[in-house]
Amino acid sequence: MCGIVGCILKDKEAAPVLLECVGKLEYRGYDSVGIATSASEIRIQKDQGKIDAFTENLDMKELPGKLGIAHVRWATHGLPTKINAHPHTDCQKRIAVVHNGIIENFKELRTELINSGHKFSSDTDTEIIPHLIEKYMDEGLDLEEAVRSAVRDIRGSYALAIMCRDEPGKIIGVRKESPLIVGKGEDEYFLASDVPAVLNHTNQVIYLDNREMVILDGEEIIIKDLDGKILTKEVHTIEWTPDMAEKQGYEHFMIKEIHEQPDAVKNTLREEEDIRNMVRDFPEFKKICFVACGTSYHASLVGKYLFETLVGLPTDIILASEFEYSGGALDKDTLVILITQSGETADTLKALRIANEKAETLAIVNVLGSTATRDAKHVIYTRAGPEIGVAATKTYVSQLTAIYLLAILMGGKEELLETLQKIPDFMEEALKTEEEIKVIAKKYKDTYDFFFIGRGFSYPTALEGALKLKEITYIHGEGYAAGELKHGPLALIDDDVPVVAVTPPGHSHNKTLSNLEEVKARGARVIALGSKEDHVLKSEAEDFIGFPSEINEMFSPLPYVIPMQLLAYYISIYRNIDPDKPKNLAKCVTVE
Ligand code: G6P
What we know:
The protein is of the alpha/beta class. The protein has three domains: 3-243, Aminohydrolase, N-terminal nucleophile (Ntn) domain (Glutamine Phosphoribosylpyrophosphate, subunit 1, domain 1); 248-427, Rossmann fold, CATH 3.40.50.10490; 432-579, Glucose-6-phosphate isomerase like protein, domain 1 (Rossmann fold). Strand 16 (287-292), helix 9 and strand 17 (315-319) form a beta-alpha-beta unit. Helix 4 (128-138) crosses helix 5 and helix 7 runs parallel beside helix 13. It starts with a strand and ends in an 18-residue tail after the last helix. 6-O-phosphono-alpha-D-glucopyranose (G6P) binds at residues 293-296, 340-342, 345, 348, 390-392, 585, 587-589. 6-O-phosphono-alpha-D-glucopyranose binds next to helix 9.
């Protein structure tokens, strides 16, 4: 998983623009960065590490030209080193390629190419692409035909941006299963893995579909299929401003995005009418099956409790990466709901393809025009705006909101819409706990293990709290159904282990309180989240985070997750970790 960009500018040098654009894609990977520009020849600069360090050591004069391509890498094949950084080239260094995706048959192709005399200089799967293009150009094809022939040989996923010394002034892009968009500015042309990369230059965007190719020559945008047939594509106007993709004064994207959550929920709530219309046309389903990964999986788990409670349908929930092994019991009476903020997670897209063959599919997605939105039979947009922090926050609460709307409308429980409308205000209240959370974060920043417990609707919140902690603080956090503690993890509890108990008022409250007694008896230090008026809970806890008492169990996942996110964020800050770019992780996982 990587980010790619390309640009052809009218009267500006490409290198600084490429750096700026690819900087907006750092959430896709930050193992290495590289740029190629073209004037009389192709010049390349690349290095391991993040863009800021790369830019500091870069002499822009080394990269002349108004046209170029750039890349940020999240390593899949080959270590995250300078040699493996993109762009990659052919033997004669006349073709430069940046790639997002995985070439599954690269080993066979590499052996064939080496046997016919090609010299490789990296361990990447990508490097076979410029060599394949070189092979076809040597056979007499022009760049466009050679690219088409090369991608026909490739098995796997790719979004590519390609330039060639022999056809200066041209960039070719092509995609299959990895995203690629075209940006159309004023006599300027862009290619990118995602919209934020180009927003400072244009809001006019074309989404390429699988097996489509774009040829940019500085004059026009030509889009073709892989048989060379010219296609007409819609140009979308993007309403996200460049500002929306920036930090707006916050220290990190993550904290900015945590604070944007009440607005994100309000935006999702605006989808009520569209969801109502969609639900009206639904056939009568007999079963629901949620499929997702990571944080989106936790949103799905809330969905399971909601659908079983409000719609009364049996509801499965399957991790997308497990779907091909266990998602078989589907039929036309099943609604498969895929939750994916990016719409590009490889495991989820694969599950979507399988599900499409047997059942009705609905994708709940944040990124407009992403693959899931095009592949699913029905789509709900969460409209949370761009999320740059690797750890999902505002997209999670937007997903939850979309699921609440869907379950309420499918279950005919319209009376609950009023409560849902109040949630953004409760979330504003939850954000006011920030100062208290800072104190707790400071106190526990050097802890090795954390437990997060909850029952019913609070169980997914406990899982999400633990995931946030792991992702950005590198502290072991374990989310557990409170009732399960006695079946194993209780053995791990002692006075070094803080236990975060999610205990809103409702059905599960008293039982979680008993579980809390059990951990306290083993010495655990309890951080409890509950109603401000819950004096018993307050007296049991060493630290207490209070919420308005009107927030009941069913709606608690939305506001109660906020202190969890803040706790992880501030522990990360106090441990000197960059929460926006946790090690080994990436925002959008386009490999299985
Ligand atoms: C990655 C991200 C997570 C996200 C998961 C699923 O692991 O780091 O934050 O929850 O992918 O992503 P999706 O885009 O499918 O929701």
